[in-house]
UniProtKB/TrEMBL annotation:
SUPFAM superfamilies: ssDNA-binding transcriptional regulator domain. InterPro entries: PC4_C, ssDNA-bd_transcriptional_reg. GO terms for biological process: regulation of DNA-templated transcription. One of its GO terms (molecular function) is DNA binding. This is Transcriptional coactivator p15/PC4 family protein. It comes from the Bacteria. Pfam families: PC4. Residues 15-64 form the Transcriptional coactivator p15 (PC4) C-terminal domain.
Length: 73
């Protein structure tokens, strides 16, 4: 089984972060990018806004992000 955990929290502002992590769900490992919000008690909670992809697709996602960077340059 792959190592799981938070890779990085990216501050989105207004009490929200984009959390990049390796997670496990029903025995499957996923690369998860999800928006989390801060609840009234100050705890981070996940939203439904996000994507969980199979590890085999991470390379394709990386290539797409690199292409997006070139478009934005």
């Amino acid at each position: 089984m792959a190592k799981t955990g938070i890779i990085r929290d990216i501050d989105k502002g207004r009490g929200e972060v984009i959390r990049v992590e390796i997670s496990e769900y029903k025995g499957q490992t996923f690369f998860n990018i999800r928006v989390w919000y801060t609840d009234p008690n100050g705890e981070l909670k996940p939203t439904q806004k996000g994507i969980a992809i199979a590890p085999a697709l991470v390379g394709d996602l990386k290539e797409a992000i690199e292409e997006a960077k070139r478009w934005l340059a």
